């Protein structure tokens, strides 16, 4: 595509050089540059792309978008100055990849918890309806049935537009996407047109990045502020921030709720470890999910499908066939008669939700043993709260490693233990080795008990000192169960 055509998407300042040249690709990472590429220098959280303009040109970049022009300019390179290159990159990528969201309906899901479940279930449902669909999520990206591995909840704007462009080219009618607060704050979704936005809930998370809860809320709200009037904004009326999200949106607002009057109303009629019986807008449906938080997620899925024009009866029929997402309240049954649940809960609120759900289903008929840790180089303030919630809602707690990253695992454990009183310690063990912690929980469990292994869910690695070592909670549990069988 001609450079001049790509630049029509943004407001430019000073331009030095020829705009008539062909651009073969767009990059923000100088290491990825190929001959004929456009390099966008972005001031990131870790590094400033302006420091790598020279490297990008050495590798073959023929044009550079930047906020500050280099002191020395190359005669063969075109330089375009902009006020905000972070804002520009998404718009440039959208134009370069053929404005993919004008060719498909993109639905964004944002909130602290439930994003992955809702986006994935909508993707699965619309494929069952017979459409080609795409998914952009924490677990994996999909272009219809093709899996594309993922590193971030929301990819960088260039990868994002490339993915959406491929979805459009391959005939996808819908795309469902998790929209993280980082993605909004870092303008990764700049230039994209959303057909709808869904808000799940808002609790403490990512304060290492946003610094305050108010900044975190504003990042989420900015997504809804940016929706077009042709879009829908679906919000959870059960969350106290639900209506705050949509108060300035131009989109058509709809609400869903398990507790109060709403456009889409749900109620849990029966609950067990095998599934639930729900009432949704006065129609009953059996689902293969457990717990009130999943009832809320399923209600959001139902609501969004109806807002996308599907008939309620058809939506309920498909809702009853959907299965839980990997690592989200994933249950395994031991032949010794206890249940183990693997869940991604890594915030105090998510942990509380999962443990409350276990208690609702157990109804006092067994003990709860929780294995939990906290991630390194992330919000330290939630560590003692995680430990407090685990102790409050469990009979035994084993505090262990999660993804320590560049911190010492014992330091993270100590931060968690600092939130506990001396009498709490009677039911707490700390075991740094996560595999050993899970094994100990299984040794403590008796028939009828439930073990919750929280924090990592679908992840199949442990991030230690910058290296991802293979580690999968479900695999570890399956191996322990197998050994239990052999011992019998």
UniProtKB/TrEMBL annotation:
Keywords: ATP-binding, Cell cycle, Cell division, Cell shape, Cell wall biogenesis/degradation, Cytoplasm, Ligase, Magnesium, Nucleotide-binding, Peptidoglycan synthesis. The keyword Cell cycle applies. Residues 22-97 form the Mur ligase N-terminal catalytic domain. ATP binds at residues 111-117. Pathway: Cell wall biogenesis; peptidoglycan biosynthesis. A motif (Meso-diaminopimelate recognition motif) lies at residues 402-405. It is found in: Cytoplasm. Signal peptide: none annotated. Meso-2,6-diaminopimelate binds at residues 378, 402-405, 455, 459. Residues 109-304 form the Mur ligase central domain. This is UDP-N-acetylmuramoyl-L-alanyl-D-glutamate--2,6-diaminopimelate ligase.
